[in-house]
Amino acid sequence: MRLHKLIAITAALVISTAFSAAAQKTAKAELRDGMGNSVGTAEFSPAPQGVSIRLNLTNLPPGVHGIHVHAVAKCEGPAFTTAGGHLNPDMKHHGLENPEGPHAGDMPNITVGADGTVKTTIVAPGVTMGDDGHSIFTNGGTALVIHAMPDDLKSDPAGNAGARIACGTIAKM
């Protein structure tokens, strides 16, 4: 009888783990430059606070660049203005260092190497992968945008990060 109980418990754990893994949400964005050329991918997964974004990017200008989650899942080049502004459901001011901010879509800058590549994982602390207004899936989806210059982390509305040089719509996997 103990063996049957042990088998039942083991089966329940296996099924529970399988459902938990299936429920784990992930998303991906294929980023392109203003000419439509691929510059790589971003993979999204839940983090303890926010969303973890694994970047694997190429063919970008070396240096520090602002990166944000924008409110509209549309990336029409060359300027990517169709992606709208930063995701900002709470109507705060821009910047992780702004006492009246930040926007939900604000996050730390990324650094592209001299060879034009960046492989790193960053966390977007203000967004979720749920069903709320902070979700990267809200209102039909959002976009990930890389800017030409560093984000100063405080100036409204976009941290003086300059032109949008790459964009990708965020899609559930």
Would you summarize the structure shown here?
Helices cover 13% and strands 32% of the residues. With 173 residues, it is α+β, with helices and mostly antiparallel strands.
Description of the molecule:
With about 170 residues, the chain is an alpha+beta fold. It contains one helix and ten strands, in the order αββββββββββ. The protein has one helix at about 1-25; strands at about 25-35, 40-45, 50-55, 65, 65-70, 110, 120-125, 145, 165-170, 170. A hairpin with a 4-residue loop joins β1 (about 25-35) and β2. The chain starts with a helix and ends with a strand. Mean pLDDT is about 85; it is low at about 5-25.
Structural features:
single chain; 173 residues; alpha+beta; Immunoglobulin-like; eight-stranded antiparallel beta sheet; two-stranded antiparallel ribbon; 10 strands; globular; disordered N terminus
The number of domains:
1
CATH class: Mainly Beta
**Corresponding CATH architecture:** Sandwich
Estimated radius of gyration: 19 Å
Q: What's the average pLDDT?
A: 87
Are there runs of 5+ residues with pLDDT below 50, and where? 3-24
What about the largest sheet? 8 strands, antiparallel
User: In whole angstroms, how far apart are the ends?
Assistant: 43 Å
Output the CATH topology.
Immunoglobulin-like
Look at the helices and sheets and give the structural class: alpha+beta
> Helix proportion of residues, in percent?
10-25%
Task: Summarize the helix and strand pattern as letters.
Answer: HEEEEEEEEEE
According to DSSP, the number of beta strands is 10
Q: Quick one: CATH superfamily?
A: Superoxide dismutase, copper/zinc binding domain
Number of helices, counting only DSSP H or I runs of 4 residues or more = 1
Q: Quick one: overall form?
A: globular
Strand content: 25-35%
